[in-house]
Amino acid sequence: MSKPFPELEGELRQPSLMRRFAAMIYDGFLVVAIWMCTGFAAVGLNHGEAVSGPLFQSVLFLLTFAFFAYFWVRLGQTLGMQAWKLRVQTLDGRHISLRQALIRFMTAIVSFACLGLGFFWMLFSSNKATWHDSFSETQIVLLPKN
After folding, report:
1. How does it sit in the membrane (predicted)?
2. N or C end: fewer C-beta atoms under 10 angstroms in the chain?
3. DSSP character for 53?
4. Among the residues of 49-97, which ranges form H helices?
5. How far apart are CA 134 and CA 139, in angstroms?
6. Does position 11 have pLDDT exceeding 90, yes or no?
């Protein structure tokens, strides 16, 4: 059973698509930094030769998932989400599980692969949910200012 987040004053609202994209851009920079550090380490371990192939790509993929899963499951927020006052939570206001994080991550990849259709879906959804929100039974909420 996941633990609930502390109660906040006021009603939590759904963030705009632009706010979500801003947080994703912020997190994208962090992911690229992780990839670069991994690449530097891999080249060093490979005696200065370039590293490529399915094993290296799999390591990058797993590190990317680990980044998002750690922050989503433990804190409910990545660093980009903290900067933009966003939080991912279950529909009843609790921390998401590792399973939900995996579903959310994989569905977000599909959303990107469909030219962002899964993200733009929130503009037409009655509850402002993206594909990865719906499939993982999670939601993004806008936290009130302190």
Report:
1. Multi-pass membrane protein
2. C
3. S
4. 54-74, 79-83
5. 8
6. no
Determine the residue type at 88: V
> Average pLDDT in the 6-31 region?
89
Whether residue 89 is contained in a domain is answered as: yes
* Residue 56 counted as domain residue: yes
145 pLDDT more than 90 = no
Structural domain tally of the chain?
1
pTM higher than the cut 0.85:
yes
User: Does residue 9 form part of some domain?
Assistant: no
> Following CA atoms 55, 61, 66, 69 in sequence, which dihedral angle do they give, to the nearest 10 degrees?
-150
The residues that bridge with 13 in the sheet, in sequence order, are 142
Q: At what angle do helices 98-113 and 54-74 cross, to 10 degrees?
A: 120
Q: Running DSSP on this structure, what letter comes out for residue 146?
A: -
Model confidence band, residue 4 (pLDDT cutoffs 50, 70, 90): confident
Coil vs helix vs strand at 88: strand
| CA-CA-CA-CA torsion sign (142, 60, 99, 70) | negative
8 is a domain residue: no
